[in-house]
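Re: folding output
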Amino acid sequence: MNIPQAPHVAEFLKRHPDATSLPAGAIFCAKQMAEYEAGLKRIPSMVTPPAPKVERQMAIELLSDLGAMPSIVVPVPPSTNNLFVNAGKRRVTSSKYQDWQNVAIPILRALSPPTQYPVGIVLTVEEKVRSSRDIDNFVKPILDAIVKAELIVNDNVKHVAEVTIRYRPSDLGAGVRVEFTTPK
């Protein structure tokens, strides 16, 4: 079966003919991520990636080179309850959270940064129905990743005036669409 390429990946491959010399897994991963953006396919899973980590990073870089996008989908983050673990008397970032950040932050860098503050942020959770997860547990890891991606200076009220979170069931798989808005 021949899966259609998302238009912006096809355009990237035309502009960068040497990209075909990259490992096939990186091209495949980039196409999958772009097809999800175009609404054609589910986002690659962090649990069973279609390519090794190095190839996934190359795919993310391929997409980042396409230019800024008005919205983008990142994989579903770990629950807020699982972001940190105890290490003696300290709390440290969990390995699941670190792994998620390593994937999400480069993807977020493809977003168009806001041009004025304060901003509004809309998070749309797109996944198959999961009844056990609280919707507010998506907010903290994504806002922190947006700051680490250097899209906004800080996620305090001086810089972020509102956060809207929506849930939309999706047969395409799991992801969270992130976009900046002008607060009302």
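--- second protein (sequence, then structure) ---
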Amino acid sequence: MNLKNKFCIYLMNPNINEFNDQLKNFIEDLKLLEINQVEKLDNALYYLKFNKKMPIKLFREYILKNDLNRIMIFEEKEHFFIEQEYNETHENITSLMVQQIKDKWFNLNKNEKKKIWNYFKIFIYYSDQEMGIDTIKYNKQIKNKYFSRVVM
């Protein structure tokens, strides 16, 4: 594939490309935290050149599988990582990433945790953008939906 074709693909999917760029940055940052099995995460990045949509698809499937997860991330609720169960029959980059963070969560300092929360918020933003969702507006709708149930 020549440079012009690569550039055209990038322009067609800027949110997917931004998501993948942030994922690469995130994995590099996880290496600094001495996350176990980071080489598996590195290996998973290899497959991006074959299917650029796969990481964002897996993120939606495993992290954004319900609106409550979205709220937990934006509200930075620690039990989101601690209580997540990933007993998948097949390992994927998203479930592996969350499991590794979960295993290290209590050993991370406040700044390291904040950085992880920010990455997950960025992943949600690019996922939403790719789907044509206004993240702020959608988050408000979800909060209203869940909080109105609590009040009633």
